[in-house]
Amino acid sequence: MFADRSEAGRLLAERLIPLAHEHPVVLGLPRGGVPVAFEVASALHAPLDVLVVRKLGVPYQPELALGAIGENRVRVLDDDVLLMTGVTPQELRDVEKRERAELERRVARFRGDRRSVPLTGRTALIVDDGIATGSTARAACQVARALGATRVVLAAPVGPPDAEKRLHPEADEVICLTKPADYYAVGQVYRDFTQTSDDEVERLLARAAALAGTPADDSHPADDSHPADPEVFVEAGPVTLAGSLTLPDDPTGIVLFAHGSGSSRHSPRNRSVASVLNDRGIATLLLDLLTTEEEHDRRLVFDIHLLAERLGDATAWVREYESTAGLPVCYFGASTGAAAALTAAAAPGADIAAIVSRGGRPDLAGASLPSVTAPTLLIVGGADEEVLELNRLARSRMRAVTRLDIVPGATHLFEEPGALETVARLAGAWFSDHLPPHGESTAFGG
After folding, report:
1. 169: preceding bond cis by omega (within 30 degrees)
2. How far apart are CA 172 and CA 223, in angstroms?
3. Cis peptide bond upstream of 392, omega within 30
């Protein structure tokens, strides 16, 4: 039994001390997780912030999550649940609008004028007072990754015996002080489980900022080993596309990411791969090829020629942008984004250095496949049998240098342990092998 959340936090902090060398950002889940997180942040001398998330529930079955939202317009969706439930674009918009309003209300109340602590390139240590079903914790992990965290650790004083299984792969590590066999509620391990108030959350956040010696409205600097523009904007015909650009020192090239249906530039999977590329000295641009309004239209999601045209516009922007002009350009496509990447690469004068497809649908590139000249790596999960066969057929129609790598046991989203890491390793090696020697001029480099 813990006396209260503060005692539980102090005991949890003792277990988490080894993480101090990672310089994590401690994120309390409001409201009950914040008193626990305050003790952890104090012990680890780490910045404390709140991670406000809202689950997006299926309208007629709210307990079934079809995704989650966080700050900075972050949204993660579960394609499988969307497909299974048949939720319409309008229903999705209505759910998100309602939950977004509540999220913004809570953020304004808890944080006030303080800015959020940046997570890009850092370890996110998410803390709650206990793990029950794990659905909120899972959503929090997804949002933390979408906000740029390269490693996510979930910690709580108590959780169910199968906590790790429930929360993998969203969390890289799950730490619970106790996991009772007869677990039925978080409150069973607390003598005082009084509800935490909004006022207490505000007070603890302000106190943590004061103890850290920083003004209450100051933000903590992120790891600047890969400095990133929070957002860049690309003109693509009649629309403006938002993207996230990361520039390591003296980059050897740049990879443009074209994501698939139901995803976005905040995709935790693509961000994870991008981080590995950044470590190899390769710049990355994660781009939304559809606007927020357009992405609800399923016809546009599968309009490969439209997506390819916009990827071409983004490529032209990269070649004119001061910080990226002259860099060799590569594409990384996932799902339908792979078809867009191949189609764009087949355009006359595209001059793309290399392409990687993750769980992609190259078959949707159709007649463009024989015109692709860029070396292309197709990565498919061994358990993703239908997509694997489509990749084999598409490869047989290609004339460029191609390779098909199968990740054993992996399914379409590469959620199995180690699967995404394998994707990142394969992609990094492919791009590094096919980029021109560092400093060599390219057709667009002058």
Report:
1. yes
2. 19
3. no
> Quick count: other Cβ atoms within 10 Å of Cβ 210?
11
Cα 361 to Cα 391: distance, rounded to the nearest angstrom: 7
Q: What are the distances in angstroms from CA 301 to CA 89, 209, 268, 291? A: 12, 43, 19, 11
Report the pLDDT value the prediction gives residue 33, as an integer from 0 to 100. Answer: 95
Residues 6+ apart with CB under 8 A from 320: none
Q: Residues near 287 by Cβ (< 8 Å), separated by ≥ 6? A: 234, 241, 242, 243, 244, 256, 257, 258, 265, 311, 314
| C-alpha span between 2 and 23 (Å, rounded) | 27
Grade residue 437 by pLDDT with cuts at 50, 70 and 90.
confident
Specify which residues 153 forms β-bridges with: 125, 173
pLDDT in tens, 162-179: 999 988 888 999 999 999
Selection from 261, 430, 239, 426 nearest residue 340 by Cα: 261
Closest alpha carbon to 350 in 337, 362, 360, 341: 341
Name which residue leads in pLDDT, 430 or 263.
Answer: 430
Residue 223: per-residue pLDDT: 39
- pLDDT by residue (tens digit) across 368-377? 999 999 999 9
Give 56-105 pLDDT, tens digit per residue. Answer: 888 888 878 788 888 877 787 877 788 888 888 888 889 989 998 988 88
62 vs 66: CA distance, rounded Å: 9
CA dist 5 and 210 (Å) reads 21
Tokens of 396: 């047989």
The conformation of residue 442, written as its DSSP 8-state character, comes to: -
Locate tokens 């498919």: which residue?
380
Strands (E), 114-207: 123-127, 151-158, 173-178
Dig out the tokens for 237 from the structure: 């015909």
Q: Distance between CA 119 and CA 244 in Å, rounded?
A: 14
Question: How high is the mean pLDDT of the chain?
Answer: 86
- At residue 62, the pLDDT reads 81
Cα atoms in the 13 Å half-sphere on the side-chain side of 412: 15
| Phi, psi angles (nearest 5°) of residue 216 | -60, -25
